Amino acid sequence: MDYQGWRIHSPKVQLIRIKNFLADEDIDRTIDWERKFAEIGEFLLHCLRMEGATDKDWYIDLRECMNMLHTHWIFEQYHYGEKKLVIDFPKYSGVSTRLPPLVDGRDIIAEKRPKDPVRPRYLLHRVPESIQDVDYQIPGPLLRTMFMTWFRQDGNLVWAADPNGQMPGSGQRGKVFKYQPDFNMALTEDKWFAKCMEGGPEATSNELRGEANFYILGNESVAGEVKDIEFRGKKHTTQIHYPEGEVQQRFARYRGAKRAALQQCLSHFDSVENVAIQSPFRRLVLPLTRRQKERAKTEAGMNIVYKPQAIKAPPKNAKIDPLGLVYWHMKLGENHLQRANEMRKKTEESQRKHLNDPDMVLLPHNFRGPVTPFNFLRESERKLVARHTLLVNLRDKVRRAWSRSPRQMLEGVVKNIDLGLQGRPSWNMKDELVAHRNKYGRYLEMNDMELFWVYFVCGPSTNSKMQREALPKLGRAFEVFTTRMQTLLDEPSQECLFAVQKRNVSLQQVTLALNAGLRHGDFVFSVDMVNKYSRVLADHGRLG
After folding, report:
1. Cβ distance 96 to 87 under 8 Å?
2. Burial class (CB in 10 A: 0-12, 13-18, 19+), 281
3. By the 8 A CB rule, do 157 and 168 touch?
4. How is the chain split among helix, strand and coil, in percent rounded to 5?
5. 25: exposed, middle or buried (Cβ count in 10 Å: 0-12, 13-18, 19+)
6. Which end of the chain lies in a sparser environment, N or C, as judged by fewer CB atoms within 10 Å?
7. What are 160-218's pLDDT values in tens digits?
8. Which residues are 231's β-sheet partners?
9. Residue 220 in contact with residue 244, Cβ under 8 Å?
């Protein structure tokens, strides 16, 4: 589109950028906020006056931008009030200083700018085409055409929905793929961002290694349409594969946890540079070229007094740390922790003794931080928060296990957990709970055995869906191994190898059973082959 003599992106793209900018920036964190505020308002007014603006698909984004801009204005008026009217403005030059410069440099007056044809204006945000994403570790076309596109579509559904009504699902995509249950990637990302922010950096780190970790397995895709493409003069028939719903939720959880991790890292500082790198394009980076890598490797040891070169086998009687920097830094840390532990213990004892406060707010173990909202809670409140977090995590694990492999027992567990979080009685264990409460006077916390049972139920299981999955083609030897193993599993005798579940069977016994009764020329399996093929069957649900 044409805007003030420049060719820029369409309003649909610009309005999304404006929404991201207004959501992350404000008058306290942004340099030259007044000018940017005025430019945004002028552009929104231009879009509003466009012909047929109300019929465009970006009109909802336009209304959202106007409301967000109005909210910023109310915030400024409330905190800073009306500024004094400036009448004596400084005299500025009439020469245009906008970039890119106009024809013939800066000797053209802005009021007499010639009507040249529209020239391209290269903005800061360009379409990332040849960019390799270092976080998700997946091909760029797959990230842009599917994950990011679907995530943006779900976000538009959330922005267009009524805040007081029911939150939307995945829209048209959910109707096509028939997700059960339906989900919204934007809501999932926001939920996990809030969850990690409430849990603190430690919870965020654990979630990124656990449930919020992003990966794609080979069998987590849905086959789509078949197309004929031409490559180097030859025609090829290809089939598009779409990621499953669990992979999309994993992507949203990972994105929310990474956003929380970045916010928690930057919360220790307060500078414009840290705020600037919180833009939505912060994770897309270009890989270093070969010359840049060589230059960085060359400059790594420059201007350093002691080069960071570790000695694998130091000489005998050699001084590894001549000035004692490493030793005294270690001693400094130990003395600080020792002093912090002593002061913490004495302070808590004094408060309990003199203030008669048994339920007090504990001091942090490390005086140097980080200090999280969890550190301001009392002991009883900490136990309550830890118990609630444990129950919420168990609920999420059970729900995912039930959606992955539905079972009647898991359905009852999910129903009981939801009723418990709502404060309603159980649907099938009312008498047992009443007897438990009458016996102990309250509900006891979960012990290790009960927790182990819940985690065991949430683990992988052998079900009909997994058994119907096709096994990988590893050759004729694997097919013979699968046939013999199935024969052992189907043996009805109580004296066979796998008749009793609690019986511990070694690999040597399984190998002897598979090789029993062989004739000349048959396959003979070794212990390593049995171990390798058994793991393949276990991954596909054929073995427990």
Report:
1. no
2. middle
3. yes
4. 50, 5, 40
5. buried
6. C
7. 888 888 888 888 888 888 888 889 999 999 999 999 989 888 899 999 989 999 888 88
8. 234
9. yes
* Cα-based angle 145, 150, 155 (whole degrees, multiple of 5): 135
Structure tokens at 137: 């570790």
Q: Which residue has the tokens 């106009």?
A: 102
Are 541 and 469 within 8 A, CB to CB? Answer: yes
Tell which residue, 98, 82, 248, 89, has the closest CA to residue 171.
248
Q: Residue ranges of the alpha helices (H) in 232-289?
A: 245-266, 272-276
The residue-averaged pLDDT of 502-511 equals: 77
Compute the distance between CA of residue 122 and CA of residue 154 in angstroms, rounded to an integer: 29
Pairwise CA distance, residues 415 & 399, whole Å = 10
- pLDDT computed for residue 495 by the predictor: 67
Owner of token pair 């910023």: 72
Q: What is the dihedral of CA 386, 213, 282, 16, to 10 degrees?
A: -90
Q: What is the total residue count of the chain? A: 544
Amino acid at 141: P
Task: Give the whole-angstrom CA distance, residue 40 versus residue 25.
Answer: 13
Alpha carbons 293 and 239: distance in angstroms, whole number: 38
Give the residue from 279, 255, 263, 268 showing the smallest Cα distance to 207: 255
SS3 262: helix
Strand partners, 234: 231
Domain residues of the chain, as ranges?
2-85+95-120, 137-285, 383-457, 464-539
> Angle at CA 279, nearest 5°, toward 277 and 280?
135
Q: Average pLDDT of the chain?
A: 80
Task: State how far the Cα of 424 lies from the Cα of 178, in Å rounded to an integer.
Answer: 31
- CA dist., res. 372 & res. 362, Å (int): 12
